[in-house]
Write a structure and sequence with these properties.
single chain; alpha/beta; five-stranded mixed sheet
């Protein structure tokens, strides 16, 4: 099973050079922001959502999976938005099994400015969401990274990943943990049994320059 993974497209998915694969994974922050007001932004993003779904209809993948990111107000402000998707499977603290591989997706992250799906760092709410990750997860998709792995903004600032997520990932030990959020952390890192992937399409200047990450899973 070949996975093609990208994240943090910010409205530029159509400019990504998407290689062939079996499953396309979209790790959040798919949409551009049109207004500083979250509710107005969500209204604008509804049209973007429909355009994204139509674009994905023309892609040659067996399945397209998606989670939300902190810029994707549409999913936080309109809980019914995902029902409009015909060509994308939206995961929000939920899982899907494809050919025996369990995928689990979640959009949450520690507070990062005043964006969507933000929760207090180290708090009980984040701990509760991470506790929902099934122990038998093969591919974990979160918007934000775990603490200390591919999570440094601009390459120099302190790690911005989630400590509680890092702890849970050590317990679950998935084969792949894909994320984005911190554009400057783009890359891959193998730690024990888990391949960590920061798949941010955009760099820190919001230019869509990073190629999607490709992973071949043995079934």
């Amino acid at each position: 099973m070949r996975l093609v993974i990208t994240s943090d497209c910010h409205g530029y998915l159509e400019r990504a050079e998407l290689p062939p694969g079996d499953i396309l994974v979209l790790g959040g922050d798919l949409f551009a922001n049109h207004s500083p007001d979250p509710d107005r932004d969500a209204a604008f993003q509804l049209n973007d959502l429909l355009q994204l779904d139509e674009f994905c209809n023309g892609l040659d993948y067996g399945r397209i999976l998606m989670i939300a990111g902190n810029h994707d107000w549409i999913f936080e402000r309109d809980r019914s938005a995902s029902r409009r998707l015909k060509n994308i499977t939206y995961l929000e603290d939920s899982s899907i099994v494809i050919e025996g591989v369990k995928f689990y997706g979640s959009p949450h992250q520690p507070e990062f400015f005043d964006w969507a799906f933000n929760l207090p760092r180290g708090g009980a709410e984040l701990a509760r969401y991470w506790s929902l990750i099934p122990d038998d997860t093969d591919v974990l998709i979160t918007h934000g990274p775990p603490f200390g792995i591919l999570d440094r903004p601009f390459g120099k600032r302190p790690p911005a990943g989630c400590e509680l997520l890092a702890k849970r990932v050590q317990e679950v030990r998935p084969k792949v943990h894909a994320f984005g959020h911190i554009h400057g952390g783009y890359g891959r890192q193998q730690v024990g049994p888990t391949l960590f992937l920061n798949a941010s399409l955009c760099d820190e200047k919001y230019e869509p320059v990073n190629p999607p990450q490709v992973v071949d899973l043995e079934l």
